[in-house]
Amino acid sequence: MTSTIDATTTTATTSPSPARALVCRGCGAEYPLIAQHACFECFGPLEVAYDPAALARVTRAEIEAGPRSIWRYAALLPTGQDPAGRVTLDPGLTPLVAAPNLAAELGIRAPLWVKDDSANPTHSFKDRVVSVALTAARGLGFTRFACASTGNLANSVAAHAARAGAPSIVFVPSDLEQGKVVTTAVYGGDLVAIDGSYDDVNRLCGELVETDEFEDTAFVNVNVRPYYAEGSKTLGYEVAEQLGWRIPEQVVIPMASGELLTKIDKAFSELVEIGLVEAPANGWRVFGAQSAGCNPIAVALHAGTDVITPVRPTGIAKSLNIGDPAAGIYAIEAVRRTGGWMEYVDDDEIREGIRLLARTTGVFAETAGGVTTAVLRKLVESGKLDPDAETVVFNTGEGLKTIDAVATQVGPTYRIKPSLRAARDAGLLG
Length: 430
Known about the structure:
This protein is of the alpha/beta class. It contains 15 helices and 13 strands. It has helices at residues 52-56, 60-64, 100-106, 126-139, 152-164, 178-185, 198-208, 225-230, 233-242, 259-273, 296-303, 328-338, 347-361, 367-382, 420-425; strands at 19-24, 30-31, 46-50, 96-98, 112-116, 144-148, 168-173, 190-194, 217-219, 250-254, 285-291, 341-345, 391-395. The strands form three sheets. A six-stranded mixed β-sheet has the order 4-5-13-10-11-12, with helices on both faces. It has a four-stranded parallel β-sheet with strand order 8-7-6-9.
């Protein structure tokens, strides 16, 4: 595909895209707004660069008057300014849940919030990135949608394609949780199970995208990845808006590739740069959360190195199981720059994190949310996270997708006959 996204097209009701180019994170080389994810000069990853003057024209009033979805931030995104061109399930504006009970249990004295992205249409934050990526893909002329996925992304791509009436083909590891297999296959697209890890799946997709047979196919996290990644910024925008246009002092974010963490941090920086919010007096601190079964980013940070050694993932937090994380070095940079930290937790701690979050907030998280909650606890106990600073933790997916993680640990607390006497004998009447 050689088409470019038209950053100048506008109608009577829309503004042009503020995006001006793709820029290499490594060497700074610039490229047009095309379907490309790696730099031809140094092979570094590309990301979207914006016209500062265009971003500076965005106002709070404009955002607040927008739709109740991620598209209220269209003026800050690379695509989607024209509603007619969107490929979307209209995700976003998910709950920011006050968590005083969780705070009290962990010894946190400042306000604690849970950003619950399980409320999105396919019950994970991936709906944000897919809506942006596939809207860009349509503008670039692609006719089929695809991805490499640990589950949630496959759900979202298949659902978006079904809504758009387009074919889809998604690739997943063959040992994926059954809940995520079913919630992908039900949309009727092609689902390809690969006997290998996510990194094996991703490698294959990187090869397929170069073939003639896949020339018309947009792989959301390969050839249109720069646009895909920008969708994560909407989580940062929403948190700031939901807090009354204020950036929290601390955030705890799960890490797979590391891109979600970098983009939330980027969203906060953009909001400050264009004057929509003021930074906290001492800035904000970014914390990353990984599973002990797949923790290459956190291990590198702990070792004081920029060299991330790939691992073969294990453990129950499969949605975070990316053993060779593409944005890991950039996540480390964001954490170091903001004075944050990273931690990792084992499977038992993850299960306890799921139950702790559910018991104290009424939010049933998938295993990634269990990772984040358990890491929050570890950060408080180690003194790395300030208990007197306002904190937001991110739940990125729905617990019903990974129900096996806690299925053997919870169940009926009583089992009785259907009679008043049985209820009394069981102690239910005091």
